[in-house]
């Protein structure tokens, strides 16, 4: 079973007007280099477990051809577009149309691509009874050969910082794929599995509704407007909302209503958050205490500062949202 409802994809006519070519202006050599790297990675992971797997026929043809190429081009564009020390809301505003095009393409073609990849995986499993384990072993070998030393070097050079401490803890806790699998099985109770399955179904329903209602484009118009309005004055850093950015956002909301498409997703997100807190708060606190106990004094101070900053910024966003909730059916 694919796990994807057969009714999920949009009718092409609904989104066709918003398609574009995100590869326009992107260096063809960069695109080719990205695909070449993907082929190398594919061969390393599937070369032994599924010799018949062909990256090009799975990812660069049929249902996946357009979406994979356009997503690759968007990634290359975004890497350049956001290559600055400080990202402002003007940069976000000018990128919205690109995200809109990719989002509408995903609405029309993501399910078909998923099914194409899923079929390829099923063919691999049919040809090799040990496909999954062989693939995991290959991924572990690739990590050890290409990234393990770099990860260890980063952890050592960043010792005493939050990221360095977390890297050291992860390296100590997970030395093999078996360690990761054991950790997952330890915490993946029947209740967690059931909730995860329900969450996946809810996310699928939200995605279908989002696409069917043309929410990508209506949301894009709203975001272009509010990001453009917020940019300037004392609001010059998109990583900060409290203060001048909050004031400029509030003034935009005074004349423009939040699309009900966004409101619906926000409300479902709040319901999901409340459910997680009600049912998993003790486990989350336990995990947090375990991680906190393994941090250095500096690492813990960094973590607490990040927590305080997130709480403050969320409070400012919540205040603007609560004061400007739209009336939706």
Protein described:
- It contains 14 helices and no strands.
- The chain has helices at 12-15, 28-46, 55-59, 65-81, 89-127, 131-146, 148-157, 162-173, 177-187, 190-212, 215-230, 244-253, 260-293, 297-323.
- Residues 5-18 have low confidence and may be disordered.
Layout: helices, strands, pairs:
Blueprint: H1 12-15, H2 28-46, H3 55-59, H4 65-81, H5 89-127, H6 131-146, H7 148-157, H8 162-173, H9 177-187, H10 190-212, H11 215-230, H12 244-253, H13 260-293, H14 297-323
Helix pairs in contact: 4-5, 5-11, 7-8, 8-14, 11-12
How many helices? The count is: 14
Query: Could you spell the SSE succession in H and E letters?
Result: HHHHHHHHHHHHHH
Main sheet, how many strands, which sense, barrel?
Answer: none
Low-confidence stretches: 5-18
User: Which structural class fits the helix and strand makeup?
Assistant: mainly alpha
Instruction: Tell me the span between the first and last alpha carbons.
Output: 34 Å
How confident is the prediction overall: mean pLDDT?
91
Shape, principal axes of CA atoms = globular
Summarize the entry for a quick read.
Helices cover 74% and strands 0% of the residues. The chain is mostly helical and 329 residues long.
Task: Looking at this protein, list some descriptive labels.
globular; 329 residues; single chain; mainly alpha
